[in-house]
Amino acid sequence: MAESTLDEGVVSPGFVGGAAALVTFGMLAYVTVLLFDRLAVALVIGALSGVGMFYTIPYTIRRADENYVRDDHQNLARSFHPGAAGYALSGAGVVVLALLFVFENPLLPIAVALALAMTEYVVLSRALPRAGESSVEDHEDAWSSDDWDE
After folding, report:
1. Under a CB-based contact definition with an 8 Å cutoff, are residues 128 and 114 in contact?
2. Per residue in 128-145, pLDDT tens?
3. 89-109 b/e (C-beta count within 10 Å ≥ 16 → b)
4. Is 54 exposed, middle or buried (0-12, 13-18, 19+ CB in 10 A)?
5. What does the pLDDT read at residue 71?
6. What are the distances in angstroms from CA 67 to CA 5, 54, 129?
């Protein structure tokens, strides 16, 4: 029997991410309209967090799969780090929602959240391993605490 991967299963990580994105979008947009009665801002908040969840959930599932192998095509689309983007964007929507309690004008909270998300993406794209990569270096020269026992 052939071995199947997570992406070939009945429910793929992308499908789970899409479902989580829709739920996140709907719930945060609803809460924003309920609290502030601003539909346009609610759509921005829901979209930021929803897109973040769309990237975060599949990244997390693929990181947990030991058999997942990342495509190593050297094009511009492969330099994008979905985990970093997901974590940065999913928090940005909540930042806008929190800052709406402080500021009357919604443009300042949106600008602050986008600047924060861009900064988070830059840091996280360097710190987080990509799906399909080991977070620990596997070659001989890698530092290990096992050397202390000798």
Report:
1. no
2. 887 766 655 555 555 545
3. bbbbbebbbebbeeeeebeeb
4. buried
5. 58
6. 7, 22, 16
